[in-house]
Design a protein that fits this description.
The complex is a heterodimer of chains A (339) and B (249). Chain A is mainly alpha-helical and 339 residues long. Chain A is built from 14 helices and four strands. Chain A is 68% helix and 4% strand. In chain A, strands 1-4 form a two-stranded antiparallel ribbon. In chain A, α2 runs antiparallel to α10 and α2 crosses α11. Chain B is of the alpha/beta class and 249 residues long. Chain B has a single domain, classed as Rossmann fold (3-Layer(aba) Sandwich), CATH 3.40.50. The radius of gyration of chain B is 18 Å and the shape is globular. The chains are: A mainly alpha (339), B alpha/beta (249).
């Protein structure tokens, strides 16, 4: 008689499709266009800021590098957008591409030095780098406008056709389109072997070293990619506001971005989006009610989020999870008989 | 079990931390397919020796050869690529990735795919099949979709071994695979160790003497950073110096 080998069935588990989040954000953007036509300027700022927080999520949430200097890449991108528009090309897409390169180059160059350190030292050095860049921007008045900021640049129509209008509709569509595309790219990135490897480094450097991973080069790639995304966030902000100030390189911006990330939950792209939206809507609403004490609301909310016991969607009943398509495949208990 | 050419050779290895001399001129030879155990009292320098062999620490003197190639100055990553794999005394798994994802991650690393940016990590069908085969072979298929936090400690140790094996090493350094494993799960880990590929050279550090004497073909005893004795389990059992170090008489 043939020997019968019992093996558990292998469930077909796949990662969630990368386009799902992008489609959801695209639909939400279209909905907002019709439902909140008077708030397009705020929504545009939220979408651009969400990109900065997403870039921070790559560094902090996925790679586990605590930084307070992400504004350096954002600011470099913002200034690059203004300078490119003033001196070279008013095409917004050319500007966006240049800013991605500028943000990536800034992160790549500083990362060569910064990533030799970890923990508190790394954190302090990221602040130092951002302060140096801010100081340089203040000194290079001919290029940056110094303390007065950089302004006076205009952009040509998007794709040669869509003028940047006073109502901010083109700006909104432009920023949302970039956000949707980048969300798809970032989801693919985080689902890739590279994304998995970076998450592995965050969770256990010793294990990844034992697997033969070159830790620092891998982190450097992620830091540089995140810098490029932050650079694009800066570009979108500069292109839609048509002014760049020294505050775009400031410590406050980096700290606010961290608060947004913590609010939404680090280590997942949706968290960065939710955190940014919640923070900016609250900021907008609370500061219009009381311009002096709005930080109380943000501080209180942050304490609630940090101190509240973690509630996972997995705690929902299984039928509800199935309906929402969130039911994770479990290994089958049944034994499959393979001859 | 037959043993072949030398897979790992350690010659006159020395390590000092300032004034502390923790490894003193250690010589160890490990042949392909051999099961060698490294034992010694606490503080004898066993884990330091494994850290030196695997490239976590740089030696102060001596040399390490992998299949005849001097790797003394090479990084841990380079040694892994040359066929040296290890587990840790304390579990070092990524606690929020599933077991299957971690094994796939090791396979990506082995195949040089770890920097691929676009294709989904679970889109490499052959590697996924290999991951399942490996987990099957260690009895871990049923927990493949769980994170290590949801596993028994013995299972976590097996996942560590699975990750090391996924790299298809020629030399495997096991740093106390039984440490912290409850007695009820010990047999499973031992069974997995006994099923390791026959051509794999295994160096085992372990405090469980029962396991060591059942598993090892040869034993090296370390005391105060130096080799005290080396031989077959029977020779070691009869060695007066070893008895004096372990039993104090």
């Amino acid at each position: 008689m043939e020997e019968v080998v019992l093996r558990p069935a292998r469930p077909a588990v796949r990662q969630r499709p990368a386009w799902r989040l992008s489609v959801a954000v695209a639909l939400a953007s279209v909905l907002c266009w019709f439902v909140l036509p008077d708030q397009l300027a705020l929504l545009t700022r939220i979408a651009a800021m969400a990109l900065l927080v997403l870039s921070l999520d790559l560094v902090v949430g996925y790679a586990g590098l605590a930084t307070l200097g992400q504004a350096a890449m954002f600011g470099v991108g913002a200034y690059a957008a203004g300078i490119v528009a003033l001196r070279w090309s008013a095409d917004p897409l050319v500007g966006l591409l240049c800013c991605a390169l500028a943000g990536g180059a800034m992160a790549g160059l500083s990362g060569l030095f910064l990533l030799r350190y970890q923990g508190f030292t790394f954190l302090m050095l990221t602040i130092a780098v951002a302060q140096i860049v801010q100081s340089l921007a203040s000194k290079l008045r001919d290029w940056t406008g110094g303390d007065d900021g950089l302004s006076g640049y205009l952009l040509s129509p998007l794709l040669g056709r869509f003028e940047f209008d006073l109502e901010g509709r083109t700006q909104y569509a432009y920023v949302c389109a970039v956000l949707v595309i980048l969300l798809y790219v970032l989801r693919r990135l985080m689902n890739s072997p590279f994304g998995l490897s970076v998450q592995g480094i965050h969770q256990s450097r010793a294990r990844m070293s034992a697997l033969g991973t070159a830790i620092v080069p891998q982190l450097w790639r992620m830091y540089t990619l995140a810098g490029a995304v932050a650079g694009m966030a800066g570009a979108l902000t500069a292109q839609t506001a048509l002014v760049v100030g020294l505050d775009s390189l400031g410590f406050n911006l980096s700290a606010e971005a961290i608060v947004m990330l913590v609010l939404g939950g680090a280590g997942r792209l949706t968290g960065a989006l939710i955190g940014t939206a919640v923070f900016m809507v609250l900021h907008h609403t609370a500061s219009s009610i009381n311009p002096y004490h709005w930080l109380f609301v943000i501080g209180g909310l942050l304490m609630v989020v940090v101190l509240m016991p973690k509630v996972s969607w997995r705690a929902l009943p299984r039928p509800v999870l199935r309906k929402l398509g969130l039911h994770a495949a479990e290994p089958a208990n049944k034994k499959e008989v393979l001859a | 079990m037959t043993t072949g050419h030398e897979a790992l050779t350690v010659q006159g290895l020395d390590k000092r931390f300032g004034g502390l001399h923790v490894t003193r001129g250690v010589d160890v030879q490990l042949r392909a397919g051999e099961r060698l155990a490294l034992i010694g009292p606490n503080g004898a320098g066993k884990t330091t020796l494994v850290n030196l062999m695997s490239g976590v620490l740089k030696p102060s003197g001596g040399s390490i050869l992998l299949a005849g190639v001097d790797v003394t100055q090479r990084s841990q990553a380079q040694r892994v690529r040359q066929g040296l794999s290890r587990t840790y005394q304390i579990t070092t798994l990524a606690m929020r990735l599933t077991v299957l994802q971690q094994v796939e991650m090791a396979l990506h690393q082995r195949e040089g795919l770890a920097s691929r940016l676009w294709r989904a990590a679970d889109g490499y069908g052959a590697l996924r099949d290999e991951a399942w085969e490996l987990l099957d072979s260690l009895g871990l298929a049923a927990v493949a979709l769980r994170t290590p936090a949801a596993l028994a400690y013995g299972e976590q140790r097996l996942v560590e071994i699975a990750l090391a094996l996924a790299l298809r090493p020629r030399v495997l350094l096991l740093d106390e695979p039984m440490a912290g494993v409850p007695q009820s799960e010990g047999a499973t880990v031992l069974a997995a160790l006994q099923r390791l590929p026959a051509d794999l050279a295994v160096l085992l550090i372990e405090h469980d003497m029962d396991l060591v004497f059942r598993y090892a073909q040869r034993i090296v005893v370390l005391a105060e950073g130096a080799v005290l004795a080396s031989g077959t389990p029977d020779e070691i059992r009869r060695d007066e110096q070893v008895r004096s170090v372990y039993l104090g008489h």
